[in-house]
Amino acid sequence: MIATNLMQTDIDTAVLVTGLSDHTGQICTVNLDCDNAVTLSITRRHYNAQNLDKLKILLARETWESVTNTQNADQAYTEFNKILQEALDTACPVVTSRPKKRKIHTNQDQDRELLRLKGAYITALNKSTLIGTGTEENKKQTNARKKEYDLYLKHLRKEAAITYIENPENQTRAVWQIINNNRCNTKSQKHHIKSLDIEDKTLTDPQNIAEHINHFFANAAERVLLNSKQVPLKLYPTLPENRFRSLETDLTPTNRVEVDKTISCLKSKPSSGIDEISSTILKHCKNEVLTPIV
After folding, report:
1. Looking at the predicted structure, is the pLDDT value of residue 58 above 90?
2. How far apart are CA 129 and CA 138, in angstroms?
3. Which PANTHER family does its entry note (predicted)?
């Protein structure tokens, strides 16, 4: 049954006999006039080796006087970020592109054989399920056609896995993906509580176990409040102001070696924050930005 407020002439429906279970499927096609079709687009910066090298050259030409001549750190960061954004807009401009449709390469011979086996199985299934005409021989033929169909599907999955693993770009990942997809899913297994030890007694009745667990969590907040009143609150002494001033004097200025080492230790990732400067870009232009950072 399909419920809709559209006119019957605007929809096409059909029942699908897949043979996968004792249920049939439905397909509904809606005929709509899409005059103003929305085209999906993605706006992003265009990063590649050539653009990153261009960004590096632009930053190398900077004197950074607007950063080094500022009076405070906030103003210095604002000027530093302004220069970086202008260089990014020049070297790595924002482009708008449409996502490419993924090409699906299929083997027509395999598709024809798969459809033939599926059709033979569904035909045998229909014969075996007819009231009054379904004989034992029809059921045997149905099971045989189903077995042929399943074995061929298994063969196709095996070939697809081999083809996927042979790709030299992702062999390790492909192997583990196939292993994880085909091994037993332990997460779906349900673990039932058969008994629950409470002080000096053991509960085995599921209803009593459920009631005890519900009571425990329902009164958890009250127990926490009672325990917090019994335990005295530990107060830590407040540091005097002169201690804070001594901590500030203990901090030593950084240098180019320390900043260089810190940037080099960053993990190369393409993701970035609001400033659009990823760790990959920062490491690529490390020598050019050392002066304003230090």
Report:
1. yes
2. 9
3. ENDONUCLEASE_EXONUCLEASE_PHOSPHATASE DOMAIN-CONTAINING PROTEIN, REVERSE TRANSCRIPTASE DOMAIN-CONTAINING PROTEIN
Give DSSP secondary structure letters for 59-93. HHT---HHHHT-SSHHHHHHHHHHHHHHHHHHHS-
Determine the Cα–Cα distance for residues 128 and 22; give it in Å rounded to an integer: 13
Question: Within 10 A of 91 (CB to CB), how many other CB atoms are there?
Answer: 22
By the 8 A CB rule, do 271 and 262 touch? no
3 state DSSP class of 139:
helix
Q: What are the residues whose beta carbons fall under 8 Å from the beta carbon of 90, sequence distance 6 or more?
A: 54, 58
Extract the tokens encoding 253: 């200025």
Six-digit token string for 124 = 């045998």
In the block, which residue shows the tokens 């081999």?
162
Ranges of beta strands (E only) in 220-259 are none
Query: Whole-structure pTM over 0.85, yes or no?
Result: no
Across the range 220-228, mean pLDDT stands at 72
Q: Tokens 């196709």 label which residue?
A: 156
Q: pLDDT per residue over 170-184, tens digit each?
A: 677 777 777 777 765
